[in-house]
Each structure stands twice: as structure tokens, then as C-alpha cells.
Amino acid sequence: MDSWLIKLDANLIRTIVIQGATFLAFFVIVKVFFADKIKAILDERKKVIEKDLNAATEAKEKAEKLENEYAEMIKGAHDEKAAIIHSATEDGEIMKEKIVAEAREQAETIITNARKEIDRERTQAEKELRDSIVDMTIDAAEKISGKSFTKEDHAQLISESISMIKEV
């Protein structure tokens, strides 16, 4: 038995040699005629890829820079918002205190005016009461005595009536 799986005969060897020679010829032809063009195409492609990579790196750096700037702007906006809210709160408190103070002043004015009106009404009522009592006293005195009183009698009766009213 033959230990070789492929039998090497003359035709097989010749085919291998021809194919090897053809491959070498093709390789030489490609090397001589196309190697520079292929190398130029590959170099150009390499430059394009490097350019794209550099542009991508620059774009990434620019994006990171913009991201940092926007983050700072957002932080500044948050700080400004907090300051505005704080200021508005302070302004609101000031306005609240002012409104409360004005309301208190108005209430005090109303109370003062009401007290004056009450005093005025009381004085008026006391005067009307005195006049009424004087009139009743004069009428009663005239009816009791059956005579008319003079001005001096009226004045004396009025004085006596007022002193009695004050005692009451």
C-alpha cells in the first residue's frame, strides 16, 4: 500500500509548476505596473482616514468644551434663578410688611375716627338729654306751681337740673 494520499505524477507536477510560475508572473506584473498606484491609493485612503479621525477628535474636543460651557451656563442660570427667587421673596416680604403696616394705620385711623364719632354722638346725646330734662323740668315746675317762669327762673331751674344730672 501506498502511504501517499495524492499520487505525484508528471501531470500534477507540471500543473503545479505552471500555476506557480503564473502566480509569480502575475505577482511581478502587479508589482511592476500597479504597486505604485495601489500604494498611492492606499496612502490617499490613509490620509483621508487620518484627516477624518483628526476632525472627529477635534469635533469631540469642541463638543466637550461646549458641553462644559453649557454646564457652566446652566449652573449660572440656576444660581441666577435662585437669586431672583430670593430677591422676589424678600420683595414679597417687604410688600407684605408694608401692606400690613398700611392696614394697621388704616385700622387705627378708623378706630380713632369711630371714637371721635362716638364722643361726638355721646356729647350730642347728653346735650339732647339735658335739654329734654330741662324742658320736662320747666313743664313740671309750671304745672306744679301753676305759674309761668321768667328767664331768671329758667336759668336757676336749668342750673339745678344740670347739677342733679351730673350727680346721677
The helical percent reads over 70%
Low-confidence stretches: none
Distance between the termini: 161 Å
Morphology = rod-shaped
**Rg from Cα:** 62 Å
SS summary, helix count: 2
| Strand tally | 0
> How many structural domains in the coordinates?
1
Largest beta sheet, briefly?
A: none
Percent strand equals: under 5%
- What is the chain-wise order of helices and strands? HH
Average pLDDT level:
85
Structural class call reads: mainly alpha
Overview of the molecule:
The chain is mostly helical and 168 residues long. The protein has one domain (10-167). It has two helices and no strands. It has helices at 10-145, 151-167. Helix 1 packs across helix 2 (151-167). The longest helix is centred in the middle third of the chain and has 136 residues, at 10-145. The termini are far apart. The model has no long low-confidence stretch (mean pLDDT 85).
Would you kindly provide a brief summary of this structure?
The chain is mostly helical. It has one domain.
